[in-house]
Structure formats: C-alpha cells, structure tokens
Design a protein that fits this description.
Length: 186
Amino acid sequence: MADNSHQISGVAERYASSLYELAADAKSIDAVAKDLNRFQAMIDGSADLQRLVNSPVFSAEDQSRSIVALITKAGISGLVGNFLKVVARNRRLFAVPAIIQSYHETVARERGEVTADVKTAHALSAAQEKELKAALASVTGKTVTLNVTVDASLLGGLIVKIGSRQVDTSLRTKLSTLKHTLKEVG
C-alpha cells in the first residue's frame, strides 16, 4: 500500500494556508483556532465521526449533510463552519486533523513562535521549565512553547526536538554510546 501521508500533508497545508489567510483578513485567527479545536475534540470523542471523516465509503453528499448537522448542533458557524462544509463537499474530510494541525503551525510561525517537544526522565519544576524556555528562546530567537512528556527510560537528562533539530542529552543515550565505544575498543 502506498504511503499517502505526503499527499495528505500537501492538501492540509494548502487548505490550512487558505483558512489562515481568510482568518487573518477577518481578524479572527484565534476564534478560528478555537472552533477548529472544538471540531477536533468532536472527532477525538466519537468513533462514528472518525469513521465519517476517514472512510471513503461515504459519498460527498452524506459527508456534507452530516457535517452540516454536526456543526449546527455544536454551534460552529462562520468561517470554520463554511470551511468544513467546503472540505466535506470536496471530499477532503480525511485531511481535517492534518489541516487543523497545519493551521496551528501556521499561526505559530506567523507569530514567531516555535514548539519544542521535550522528553525528560522526571517531571520538570516550573523553574526548570522557565529556564529551559529561556535557553531555547535565546537559541531560536523565537517565543518557545514546551510540549513536555516524561519518559523514565531516559534515566536522566532530556531530549529536545524543535523542528528537524534534536538534542539528546539523556543518560540512556550516553550509556549506549559508551557501551558501543567500549565494544569497539575491546
């Protein structure tokens, strides 16, 4: 089976970019983000909606009718309501989660923000998070939002990933490198 993640990514970026431009023109970037988050929560909370979004079995008419009913009941109207109707009519509902993610990435990029995915061996204190944010902000020159997860298998240290760059200072990696080096020597 062919990997279509690149195709979905391209569709998502185009739709998200168009939605961002419309939201910027309407001065409703944050309101659009809020409505998109509400719709994503609806998808996450309903297996039936996930099936509607992901299944090619449903016709464009079925998807459109269902989306109109759902967004009307949820009170999602205006720009996001119309946008979701267009996406359903164009049979691109499968890309909605990626569109939402891409929209948020576009908003962050336009605001000069980046998200750092941080894995730590132990939970960080508020002071440690503040210090890490400041250090990353000085390196990137942007406002940094942290997405912290705890992974006890790291043993100590942390792994920071921003975009395509990654810094791994975990004890697990250092021990693995040492083990590998010792095997080469011995």
